[in-house]
Write a structure and sequence with these properties.
608 residues; Beta-lactamase; seven-stranded mixed β-sheet; 24 helices; disordered C terminus
Length: 608
Amino acid sequence: MNDTNFGSIIRRRIIFLAIILFVSVIAFRLFNMQILEQPAYSTKADENSVKPIYQTAPRGVFFDRNYKVLVGNKPSFTLRITPAEYDNKLTPFLEAILGVPEGYINRILKQNEQMSKYIPRKVAKDVNFKVIAWYEENSSKLPGVDYVIETQRDYSFGIMGSHMFGYSKEISSGLLQQRRNEYSMGDEIGSSGIEKTYEDILRGQKGIQYVLVDSHQKTIGKYKNGEVDKTAIKGYDLVLSIDKDAQKVAEEAFKDKRGALVAIEPSTGEVLAFVSAPEFNLQDFATVTSNEIWNKLNSDKDKPMFNRATMSIYSPGSTFKMLSAIAALEEGIIDTNYRVSCGGGFQFGDRFFKCLHVHGSVNVTTAIEKSCNTFFYQLVLKIGLDKWAEYSNRFGFGKKSNIDIPEESPGILPTRKYYDKAFGVDRWPKGILVSLGIGQGELSVTPLQLAQYAALFANYGKSAKPHFLKGYIETSTGKFVEVNPKTFDIYISSKSFDVVRYAMFKVVNGAGTAGNIRLPDIQIAGKTGTAQNPHGDDHAVFIGFAPYENPKIAIAVIVENVGFGSVHAAPIARDVIKAYLQKNNTQQIKKSEYLSTLKGEEGEHFAN
């Protein structure tokens, strides 16, 4: 191809037209972008300078059965770091201002380093206002550092309730992977107790506030005048079955003690008081829990983090004698005329099983009243292991109650299969059965199971699953929604219950082992026990219910390593029963009146 051909008129025109076409396309695109599509691109530009600020929803408040606040919320400042914008040279200054150990901030940033660097990390909660004031003065020199106002749990209402209420904590990276659609990094999630069980209705819905920021991420105004913002919606408030007065007396009684107490309303299964001692301070979990606190709690020999009320297993001791009595009466093995002569013990094979006293001739009522071991050593042999285990299972032993907190042990209910596995088929010593007759041996139960056991005696074998939640209050409507677990019946005759219940009445109001807790105006029925402990001093046990004729409360108390149940456990039960039943009716305010007159701190928390 030569220059003459290349410069021909036709070729020049083609090139000229191509240039004109190219310029026209560019001009049209510029016109389209700058004039026709300007609003859309303007919005897009705005979005590039819009910063979403997420607002944590306040968790639902806990009320007791009389609408007194048990756990509330309070505002707090949370300091955050966005790694993508943060200068690590600031770390020593921030740690000094916060008063935390060297390396604290780096450890938090590393915990979630696999997440986006543009997501803020919470480095300090419940920050002192002086720190916030310092930040405001120096914010321009602190890239990637900001703070938000959140709510945290408030435990200043006079109740500990650590094992019952539980606590929430920042969601772990592993759990976040599973629930990414529901939670974001830094969100709180219920970790134990009621907080965990009812997480889905307690957490509420997060809010979002969109703000315009400049190139230095400094807020310069609201985005679209706040029209697209979403207000945080508080979680549902829970109305618990707990009675604050009874709970407070129970907690006071267990100061400096180890053990547990569970009180239940017999007809409904509602938990009225619940203590596992020693407890731990939930306030330590309302903010970022330090390693020092964790290590101290986990190394404590008294195990304050362990829920003794539902997880610890004990021998029930003599409180289990009523089980054998019920089984024998129901099966027609004995009646009220059946008698045993107690000479201070019972010889079985080459072993002598002792009784605490020489009781002489006793029937089933007197045997329970005076806690005669000899009677029940012989009675359980008449019943046999299979029937004894069957009735024990009907009363809820050897299985979980499925109470509405996550931590629970089924205990140990030894059966034929259990002993065949331990000793070989039918090779286990029959003397084992003798010990079971008085609640010793391999039998192990939880305080919660004993409370349900007492409730079944109180209400003639009818009750409901033990539970803490009476209902919840919907945030949007203020409507109270009641929760009613299904009742159950273990189908034991009233005649058998009448015999055993009367014997329990005599334990307190006759010549029995708990006469020291007799009250002039409340008839308590119960049974003491002293449970053998292979690892130290015996445990004190008491179960009971009141009033005798129309029971409103059933209770189980275990105090570790102190000795006799009549001396150490029964008086605690008496005091809790009094606190619950001896209320001045003139001071009882109807729910509607109470809610309408809430003022001060409790009223503010309810409003929140």
